[in-house]
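Help! Submission page says 'invalid entity' but I think these are all valid:
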Amino acid sequence: MNHHEQMRICEALLFASDRPLSSIALAEQLPEGSDAQAILEDLQKKYKDSGVNLVEVAGKWMFQTAADLAFLLRKEEEKERKLSRAAVETLAIIAYHQPVTRAEIEEIRGVGVSKGTIDVLMEAVWVKPVGRRRTPGRPMTYGTTEDFLVQFGLNSVKDLPGISELKAAGFLDNVNTSRLNLLSDEKPDEEQPDLPMDDDESSSEEQVIS
Amino acid sequence: MNHHEQMRICEALLFASDRPLSSIALAEQLPEGSDAQAILEDLQKKYKDSGVNLVEVAGKWMFQTAADLAFLLRKEEEKERKLSRAAVETLAIIAYHQPVTRAEIEEIRGVGVSKGTIDVLMEAVWVKPVGRRRTPGRPMTYGTTEDFLVQFGLNSVKDLPGISELKAAGFLDNVNTSRLNLLSDEKPDEEQPDLPMDDDESSSEEQVIS
Amino acid sequence: MSDDWDNNIADFEMPDPRLSRLDDLDDEERLIVDIEGFEGPLDVLLALSRTQKVDLKQISILELVKQYLEFVTKARALRLELAADYLVMAAWLAYLKSRLLLPEEESEDELSAEELAARLTHQLARLNAMRERAAILMSRNQMGRDVFARGAPEAVIITRYHTYELSMYELLKAYAEHRTREAVADIQIFKRNVYTLDQAIERLSDMLGLALDWTSLEQFLPSGIEDAQLIKSTKASMFSASLELAKMGRAELEQKQQFGPLFIRGRKRDPKEEEN
């Protein structure tokens, strides 16, 4: 194996590694008698003027964006945040049941929805107020945005899978079988193609009476 | 800013990312009037013989380890997603026939798609719902994702191996899903809203880069 | 495609020599009767057609039918509860076979036997093609298996459209889980502490026998009740009971003023009314 081939191997290993590699670790992947150190130095030279440099940190080697291009990199704390479970569920409910008021979301979830949850969804520009219900108090109703459709590659909210489709795709399967039976007992094959959310109306009957 | 500097910026951005970046996204980081395409082609040439190559996948660009080094890098012990035969076949059918409904997949395979098969493919983010067929029942259609293209190193679904032969043989024609179609003389569904392969997979959802 | 297909009906006036070929096959060449290993009748047919070792377009439908029927018969002998799919396919193939063997009838609404056979061949070839493509696809250099992306990616500033990360899968999963939970939500209906109308009627009619003069309804309320809910319920029930008894002609009610106390007294039974 010639020097160039050995350089290629080190290059690939360093690129694909999720942590810095020592020259000893690299040497293990090379034919016996290879001079890992020399190869690394050659690689370092090769990348000297590139947008990426090979650097030695604490005796190990790694690729790193050239220091003068650091402005291209984002700061750590701006890392993408994960939505909370409550937020994901609230988003799903708004998507399926829109236009929906906060009280209705709470009724559907059976748990209170904090204002912050909806705020987060609005900040992500996935949810927006769409109007007011013509009922006492004229509560605000929420719906999904254009950005929501873009995010999930949907043409319209009607393209969200309906309950029977979720079931068919296995989504309603993984929880536990006794629950599944209960679910499928209510109506075997309700095809609700147009408005996936419509088959949910029964939930209001499940209010706890005390 | 000279050409070399622009190359360095693209190099740094692409090297830092583990996802493909579009030339449009890259152009945003370059001075106005820069020819991102030309820079990318120069970069591709620069890395041609390296252990790392610049490849075009999913209509975007990314660095990845050279394919001929696969034998060195292959991670076998990794919890490689062992797909069932049914899942692999379903994936291929979705890829070649997209947008395709569940019923059509079943028709091609001659057997029901068991629950969980599509679920597994969606969890791997290789498959997603792409819309609804404008036929009675408005069935959900499935297609492949950008992740699918990246996984299999394809620039677009048009580049799927042997797609023109399959088309020529009539294997990608509309699938007649009426039960026992062998007996009936029904014409296949006339309505096929989206041409299977002309859909360019460019949903903007995929502009998020992490 | 039908040009390639070699089952000309005219050839079958004499028993097709190919039909007997199956009987000469070695045991190992025959399909082992193992339903579990197959994914439905189409899968079996495809496997059978492969044993003919010819281009799928050239397969002999008649022989294929024969092999399939034999397969199903054997499988049935082993497992009586053979899936309906296999039997439906067997019935259809038997029908196809009979039509292929009989002289063609001119019929406008039905497809010719050749067309039906060609359709089956096409379906088998399509499944076969998809299987081949699936294998080719999986053997490509795969990201994370054969080729690798940057192992330690550095975050990059690119115009972001979304701050939050959420996949379609996660969204659907959340909704499905919610639906599943909802479907089994325990509905607890607490037993309310009430004084029933029946109780009230019983108490009131018993006590009216003792008080024949006007008495405030309040006096009949059971004493010693602490629970505010129960007091309300008792009042309501006693009021309803008084109305009920009045309606039955067993009590008279009087109220001097609006919101004033309600007086009640028992009414002697009128023998004449009883007769009616």
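Support: the input was valid. A stray whitespace character was the problem, and the output above is from the cleaned input. Chain A touches chain C through 60 residues (CB under 8 Å).
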